[in-house]
Amino acid sequence: MKRVERFVRFAAGKEVLYGKLGGEGIQALEGDIFGDYRETGRQYELKDVRLLAPCQPSKAVCVGLNYRRHAAELTMAVPEEPVIFIKPSTSVIAPGDEIVYWPMVRQLDYEAELVVVIGREAHNVAEGDAEQYIFGYTVGNDVTARDLQRKDGQWTRAKGFDTFLPFGPHIARGIDVTDLRVQSFLNGELRQNGRTSDLIFPVPYLVSFISKVMTLLPGDLIMTGTPEGVGPMQVGDTIEIKVEQIGSLINKIVAPRS
Question: CATH top-level class for 59-254?
Answer without folding.
Answer: alpha beta
